[in-house]
Structures are given as structure tokens and as C-alpha cells.
Amino acid sequence: MLPGVLSQKSWRLEEVLIPAGIVWVLAAMGVLAIWSPASSAVLPGLSTLWGTVLVIQLPIGLLIHRFLRRHATDWHRGFGFTQPTRPGLWIWVPVSVMGCVLILLGVNLAMQHLLLKLGWRTELQSAVLALQNGPWSVKATIAFTAVVLAPVIEEPLFRGILYQSCRDAGHPRLGLIGTSLVFGVVHGNLPTLVPLTLFGAYQCWLYERTGNLLACILTHAGFNAVFVGLTLAGVPG
């Protein structure tokens, strides 16, 4: 096992409260989506998708940029992008992608089977429906959002700021469990809640072991790219 190399950051508590509040708002939206029976039946249009990008993702990216500037650092230094890598360390990225895909796909299928046994009617997420049935413009936008924007925004927010802050405050387990669970909840889909929570926990572990958030971003991007490809190919899951 690789030794942990994630160094301690001096994130100020009052600065962390703002991104933490945004995450809790997103979590509340995710809970509403999980328990709203009509939420997954909507096929998103191009304007809705770009509205999500402009209203949620880009403002969060700007907030992270502001957060780093107020701590007199930048994305490279703040999230370990300049962290020296040892020979063979980056093999963790492709191995992580394939391992997470295989394991979490099985967990997802098991969750769907369990929910059906419990009488819960599982429905495809709107993004999945759009990838399967939407026009090329919608498919391209979803793919770009999932493979590029989501990893670049979500990893700094969840692992780089929130997990790191809890860990450095002396609560590593709370950081691991709490941020991973909220990461699963904000995606707003019950069958994927457990697999995405496990994925979030693995990403915390990967950040701890590499000290470089780029490993998490690339793993997240590869993970999403595989599932986008499978969906476009019509593979059920």
C-alpha cells in the first residue's frame, strides 16, 4: 500500500463554510430528485443542460478559484498538481478507472435488483435517457459535462476542499464518510446512491495516497467517460 502523502492545508474555517453550504443545498436538491417520482422521466433539452452548467457548475468553479486566491494559492499548488510523482504512481489512474467501473457497475445492478425486490420502481436518469434518445447536440453537451466539467468542479469541491478540511481539523473519518455520502446524494438517483458513495470514498483514498488531485480528476473523467460510452452503445446498466 502506498503511504499517505497528502500534506496539510491551512484552509480557514470561515472560507470553507461557503462551499460547504452550497454542497448542502445541492444535497437537498438531490434528495428531492430521489423522492420525486416524476424527476427522472424528464428528457432534458439543450437549454436545460446549459442552464445547469451556467447556474451551478461555472459559479462553483469561480467560487473555488476565489477560495484559492483568498488563501494566496492557485489550482496547481492548492490541489497538489505540482506534487512530484514517483515511477509507476500514475498507473493508479487507469487501474482505478477499470476497477471502479467493474466493481461499481456490479453494485449498481445489485442495488437495482434489491430496489425492485422491495417494490421500488427504478427509472433511468434523465441524462441517461437523453444520451440514449436525445439529439446529437444534447448528447455532446452531456458527454462534455460528465467527462470534463463534472470532474474539474466536483473533485476540488468534495475532495480538495471539504474532505481536506475535515481531515486537517482532526476528523478524517467524518470527512471520508460525510463527503462521500453527500457526493452520492447530490447526484439525485437512488440506485446509484451506494455506488457513487463508494466511488467518492475511493477518491478520498486516492487523494490521500497521491497528494495530487489530478489523479482524482483523471479517474473521475475516465470513470464517467466509460459510462457515457456504454450508454451511447446501448449497454444496459
| CA distance, first residue to last residue | 31 Å
What is the percent of helical residues? over 70%
| CA-based gyration radius | 18 Å
Largest sheet properties: none
Outline: globular
Question: Beta-sheet strand percentage?
Answer: under 5%
**Tally of separate helices:** 9
Mean pLDDT: 89
Encode the helix/strand succession as letters. Answer: HHHHHHHHH
Q: State the secondary-structure class.
A: mainly alpha
Poorly predicted ranges: none
Please report the total strand number as a whole number: 0
Question: How does this structure look, described?
Answer:
This protein is globular. It has 237 residues and is mainly alpha-helical. The protein has a domain at 91-237. The model has no long low-confidence stretch (mean pLDDT 89). It is built from 9 helices and no strands. It has helices at residues 13-35, 46-70, 75-78, 92-117, 126-133, 136-168, 172-185, 193-210, 213-232. Helix content is 72%, strand content 0%.
In short:
The protein has 237 residues and is mainly alpha-helical. The chain has helices at 13-35, 46-70, 75-78, 92-117, 126-133, 136-168, 172-185, 193-210, 213-232.
Comma- or semicolon-separated keywords:
237 residues, 72% helix, globular, single chain, mainly alpha
Detail the topology: elements first, then pairings.
Layout lengths: L12 H23 L10 H25 L4 H4 L13 H26 L8 H8 L2 H33 L3 H14 L7 H18 L2 H20 L5
